[in-house]
């Protein structure tokens, strides 16, 4: 397809179409790997946040809490929730549905017709869908990381404020 939405006048032989199909498959494979990497990162963020929240809860019984420590805990909880939201992503559809396979068999289409259909219709829709879902998951994981870093800054500030007067009193 050209930029104006009309069919291209380019003609491809069967070998060129097979190569295009192979390249399209490699592109989808790379997107799936990227999508899976974001999923693993989201799981890791949930695990790290769980450990940090547990430590904050344990420390909360030993020290008096201040607003920054509480806000830090809320940021860690928010980070874990954002990571969980990233994992909740929609199902990825890659590959042909059974009814599509049946339709192609019943219509006895040629290899060339199949390759053209795959590249002009199915692939572009599947690619756009997968790319959209991958980018959505990546944004959610990135926001989770930002919330985690905010939690670190708030918690560190709360600890400094908590112990600074005691340290200052002991030094002088």
What does the model show?
Helices cover 80% and strands 0% of the residues. It is mainly alpha-helical and 172 residues long. It has one domain (14-171). The longest helix has 61 residues, at 111-171. The radius of gyration is 26 Å and the shape is rod-shaped.
Low-confidence stretches: 1-9
Into which percentage range does the β-strand content fall? under 5%
How big is the Rg? Answer: 26 Å
Number of strands: 0
Main sheet properties: none
Note the total helix count. 4
| Form type | rod-shaped
Domain count: 1
As a percent range, the share of helical residues equals over 70%
Q: Structural class given helices, strands, pairing?
A: mainly alpha
Mean pLDDT comes to 79
Question: How would you summarize the topology of this molecule?
Answer:
Blueprint: H1 14-60, H2 67-87, H3 98-106, H4 111-171
Write out key terms for the chains shown:
172 residues; mainly alpha; 4 helices; 80% helix; rod-shaped; disordered N terminus
Give a brief rundown of this model:
The chain is mainly α and 172 residues long. It has helices at residues 14-60, 67-87, 98-106, 111-171.
């Amino acid at each position: 397809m050209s930029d104006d939405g009309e069919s291209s006048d380019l003609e491809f032989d069967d070998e060129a179409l097979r190569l295009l199909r192979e390249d399209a498959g490699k592109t989808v494979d790379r997107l799936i790997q990227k999508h899976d990497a974001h999923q693993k990162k989201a799981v890791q963020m949930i695990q790290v946040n769980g450990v940090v929240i547990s430590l904050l809860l344990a420390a909360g019984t030993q020290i008096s809490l201040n607003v920054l420590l509480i806000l830090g805990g809320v940021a860690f909880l928010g980070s874990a929730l954002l990571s969980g939201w990233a994992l909740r992503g929609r199902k990825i559809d890659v590959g042909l549905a059974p009814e599509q396979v049946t339709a192609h068999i019943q219509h006895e289409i040629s290899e060339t017709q199949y390759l053209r259909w795959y590249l002009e219709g199915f692939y572009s829709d599947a690619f756009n869908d997968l790319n959209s879902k991958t980018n959505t998951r990546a944004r959610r994981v990135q926001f989770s990381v930002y919330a985690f870093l905010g939690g670190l800054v708030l918690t560190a500030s709360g600890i400094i404020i908590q112990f600074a007067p005691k340290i200052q009193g002991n030094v002088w």
